[in-house]
Amino acid sequence: SKLFLLTGIPGQEGVHPWISIPFCLVYVISIVGNSVILFIIKTDLNLHKPMYIFLSMLAVTDLGLSISTITPTTLGIFLFNSREISLDACFAQLFFIHSLQCIESSVLLLMAFDRFIAICNPLRYASILTLPRIAKMGLVCVLRGVAVILPLPFLLKQFRYCRSNVLSHSYCLHQDVMKLACSDIRVNYIYGLFITFFTVGLDSLLILLSYVMILKTVLSITSHTECLRALNTCVSHLCAVLLFYTPQMGLPVIHRFGNSSSHLLQILLSYIALLVPPLMNPIVYRVKTKHLRARIIRVLVK
């Protein structure tokens, strides 16, 4: 078969038009929220600092993730019940989704490094995080995301698909497409595990390490107020980390140990993993970052 069939939420086909309403809302809020953050950071020279540059990288990645997940397929299924997708379009979509997730993971690691330098080595902060260095770090994030995911579409293209051509989500994911192949998928399986450990696994470990060091430094500060102020600068980043990594860690566990009853949970968790970070990151940063909040209010009042 030269086509895959996408699935919305199984068993809920009758209410798909209603389900499209929250999806549309999530999409609009994600696009507007991240665009506002980019606009504010670009136009306010006081926000041209490492922390906000990393935040704008996160916003660009979130915009890409929202657009590549929702626009081509998800809204098509829920609004118009158009389930068919060609193999090439499917491989292109999974490439963008997975590489943007890898890039987001890298950006969250850079943001942890930023907080680590700001708290543990504040005197050298400006000399370590210079603009050219930040640009190089951003480029490395993009190159790593693209390089590790690029083999996937080519590996999948080699397979014959003679089993059912029905995918279990409203967008294409590697592990989902791989299961439909009637060829030997061991290479894809092993490479998929390697990607998980090399990106999400390694990044989350390094983020944890940064926070252990940050906590060690903060607890050595004698002033209680200073201690709280230092920790407060990390709250929004910690929220972003939890929003991104919790469903990422939960999905493989459900894939491995879940039974048929957890299939719906698996689908819901995969929607949460892809749609919630782009929706919540702008809200979290707006609420927790004083300068950003003040600047947004000023623009709205104008």
How would you describe this protein?
It is a single chain. This protein is an all-alpha fold and 302 residues long. The chain has a single domain (3-301), classed as Rhodopsin 7-helix transmembrane proteins (Rhopdopsin 7-helix transmembrane proteins, Up-down Bundle). The protein contains twelve helices and two strands. The protein has helices spanning 16-43, 50-80, 87-120, 125-128, 131-149, 151-157, 174-178, 186-219, 224-232, 235-257, 263-288, 290-301; strands spanning 3-5, 84-86. It has a two-stranded antiparallel ribbon. Helix 1 packs antiparallel against helix 2 and helix 11 (263-288) packs across helix 12 (290-301). The radius of gyration is 21 Å and the shape is globular.
Summarize it.
One of its GO terms (molecular function) is olfactory receptor activity. The chain is mostly helical.
Oligomer: single chain
As laid out across the biggest beta sheet, the strand order is: 1-2
Count of DSSP strands: 2
| Secondary structure category | mainly alpha
Q: Shape from CA axes?
A: globular
Topology as a string of helices (H) and strands (E): EHHEHHHHHHHHHH
Mean pLDDT: 87
CATH superfamily: Rhodopsin 7-helix transmembrane proteins
Percent range for helical residues? over 70%
Tell me the major beta sheet: 2 strands, antiparallel
Q: Report the CATH topology name.
A: Rhopdopsin 7-helix transmembrane proteins
Count of helical stretches: 12
How many domain units?
1
Q: Which residues form runs of ≥5 with pLDDT under 50? A: none
- Class, according to the CATH hierarchy? Mainly Alpha
Do you know the CATH architecture? Up-down Bundle
Membrane topology: Multi-pass membrane protein
Keywords: Cell membrane, G-protein coupled receptor, Membrane, Olfaction, Receptor, Sensory transduction, Transducer, Transmembrane, Transmembrane helix
Organism: Chelonoidis abingdonii (Abingdon island giant tortoise)
GO biological process, one term: cellular response to lipid
